[in-house]
Amino acid sequence: MRVLFSAPPQTGHLLPALPTLSALRAAGHDVLLAGYGGNPRGYDVIGLPVVDVGDGMTVDQAYQALPSGNRFESVAALDGEEILRRPAAANAILLRPTIGPLLDVVRDWRPDVLLYDPFQGAFPLVAAITGLPAVEHQFGPLNGRPLSRLLAAELADDYREHGLDGPAHAVSIEVVPPSLHGPDPDSWQVRYVPLHGASGLPRDLLAPGDRPRVLVSFGTVVRAEERDRRLGALLPRLARLDADFLLPAAAGLDGLPGNVRALPWVPVTEVLRHCRAIIHHGGAGTLMAAVTTGTPQLIVPHHGDQPYNADLVTKTGIGLRADTVDTIDDDLLDRLLHDETLLAGAEAMRAENARQPAPSTLVTRFAQLA
Known about the structure:
By secondary structure, the chain is α/β, with parallel strands linked by helices.
């Protein structure tokens, strides 16, 4: 069986699908990745053969082509599909030039199934043109089905050009526990398996420390200046606490308090196994890494689905939310470090995720679909 996969060149969209892709390859099936977005090195983290179908346009350039010209317009949480309208419009601009090359790849490589991230709105069109079965691979709590519908609307002229009213229905792979997503009767549920690509782990982090550890991470999409502004506001508060704080992907920072340690890129999940809590931006991958280790979390959202994720962790009792780093006070940090109900909620969510089927169970489903 041959599976053609595509997603944006960003770790938050690639790594959630890596356990599925690895299971397919381990079972002897071929997987090819269709890349785009002007960042071919962004796909290195997934370790698969890549054929570029883009025209060199980057994700940022696609957003700049919108009337506002701004990728991250607001930190505010939006309701329903409003979170996804700007991404749909920008990704339609990014993906329209890939339609022809994708059809060429399908003709030449002859895949049996198309597998795609919800942001890859050209794949449902290619599936409708070719009649190939399509599977949508979710990447976090915010379900991508509405985004797929919005992208299909943005590409309506392209569907009509091929005599089509719209995409055929695709099955969805859900990778978060049922408590973190709405019911979808036409979906395949699996457990979230956190993979982080190649990275080193300091040996002393393999065991618990003398004091509670807290991981602090504001993601890979937030620009360095925004990350440093957040840390500058937060570090004085952390310096007063009887705990050790770890900053991954921040090895170049200096002038840190004695209880704050900058690290290179590290496998977050392995570090979290011996952390009492995590403070982060609310990215789906970081949220789910904390779920798999039963780690309470404090989310300071910045954009996109992060406010949605922050609300979700509070509703499900596995974490806390702060609108900005400036609103993080001693009481909130004390709750994060010592509230046993948060710890119990995080452990219950970890157990729920662990009870879900392994990604390897998807191989038979793919074969049946093909």
